[in-house]
Amino acid sequence: MDKKKMVTKKRVILIILGMLVIIAGILVFRNRDWILKPKKTTIVEEQKKIEIKDKVVMDSGNVLDSEIFFSEKINLNDAKITWINQDETVSNRNLILHENIVYSIGIYDVTIELDGEIYHSILEVVDKTPPVLEVKDIEITLGDEITSDDFIVHCEDNSNATCIITVTDLEGNIVELDASVGTKEYIIVAHDNALNEVKKKVRLTVQNKEISETPNQTVSTNNNSNPSEEINNNPPPQVITVVSTKNETEEAYEDGKYGTKYKVTNIYTITTYSNGVIDKKLVSSNRQLDTSGFQATSKELESEARNVSNSSYALYEEVTKYVNEYRAEVSTEPLTLNRELSVLATIRAIEMAYADTFSHTRPDGRSWSSVGDDMGFERMIFAENIAYGTGGYNGTPQKVATSWKNSSGHYSNMIASGHRTIGVGTYTLNGKTYWVQLFCG
Questions:
Q1: pLDDT tens digits, residue range 7-56?
Q2: Which residues fall within 8 angstroms of residue 321, CB to CB, at 6 or more apart?
């Protein structure tokens, strides 16, 4: 009896377990999507990676939004981005931005560091837009000065560069302006550095100029004292006209500093009058520095470097302030500005300006660090940062410091924990400003 009860009990248990398995199977089958999908979604999310475009092409003069490199909306506030020109021959390979507007034409390697990931792309900046040109007709009197600029009301290029102006005849041949009497038509051609051009027709009208000479002489042949009966024997006024006008170019050389020379080009207008008088007027003068003969040692540059360093030391302190702010962001000790090291940095800036070079190799072919050996600087100089700019670019301590910060190699020098001392130098020549930083332990 007990044995039968046990068998019956086991059967009941097995039947119950079997029913539970069937019920569980039904539930799993009906809710398979609910059970499996969360796991699949988790896997997809873990493997998902931000997609970056291989290449982006944009026209110069437009605002650069770094998000255009990504296929979806990305927050790049904490991203570190560098742009390096693929052309190693250019003096400044960093992308030039003015208020986030890109002007430097070229192909740039783009590196974006975001959330521990590094992304690579290419930015190609092109210029396919011609300048915007507005001109006017000109009327002058014979002998007046006239240049192509007189026809220009407004010329602006999207690359922020100066318009290059030429004058042609109606057939497209480059000509000089004819300042003789009459009306002539010309084509004003404005083009940019990418050779995009725009043409506008203008008219030049030159009127003759007459100059009267009236001798102040009255001869009386009447013995009668009555003035009303006096006879005026003056000859008729002599009319003086312009016989010819021509332009004449004169070139001369002036000695500059440190073996350089200035080539001075003066353009004159020569006007010949019918009375034999020749009038020579200076129309334009251009003074261009020829740096091919530069030759100066560190000792020969020292005197000017000390004067510049003393007068610019407030700028050097401001540059150092920004550098130390960058170091504070990464919890690195601040740098100390050193006067003697700043003199060496200023020597480097001066020699680059007068040699018209932008390189860590000095004009005499030696390494940048040799300036310390030349001047007997006893401490080892670990690194050098250089920069230059025209037209306001890199023209202030804040701008040049920001430019260095946006370049990974320069930024690394500024925040390196092994650096303890900094020297800063700057020099401006012919509208171009050079900056130098030197770092010591």
A1: 566 677 777 777 777 777 776 666 555 444 444 433 334 445 678 888 88
A2: 397
> In whole angstroms, how far apart are CA 319 and each of 6, 197, 433?
94, 41, 15
Strands (E), 325-414: 336-337, 381-390
Reference 86, options 59, 120, 53; nearest CA is 120
d(CA 79, CA 102): 19
Q: Reduced to 3 states, what is the DSSP secondary structure of residue 118? A: strand
Q: How many Å apart are CA 257 and CA 259, to the nearest integer?
A: 6
| Per-residue confidence (pLDDT) for residue 404, from 0 to 100 | 94
Return the number of other C-beta atoms located less than 10 Å from residue 384's C-beta: 20
CA 139 to chain centre: 37
Provide the 8-state DSSP code for 432.
E
- Do 425 and 346 form a contact (C-beta atoms < 8 A)? yes
Cα–Cα distance, 83 to 78 (Å, whole number): 16
Name the residue type at position 341.
Answer: L
Q: Say if pTM beats, i.e. exceeds, 0.85.
A: no
Evaluate if residue 421 carries a pLDDT over 70: yes
Q: Which of 233, 240, 227, 328 is nearest to 278 (CA)?
A: 240
Instruction: Report angle CA 304, 306, 308 to the nearest 5 degrees.
Output: 70
Say if residues 335 and 345 touch (Cβ distance below 8 Å).
no
Contact 303, 343 (CB under 8 A): no
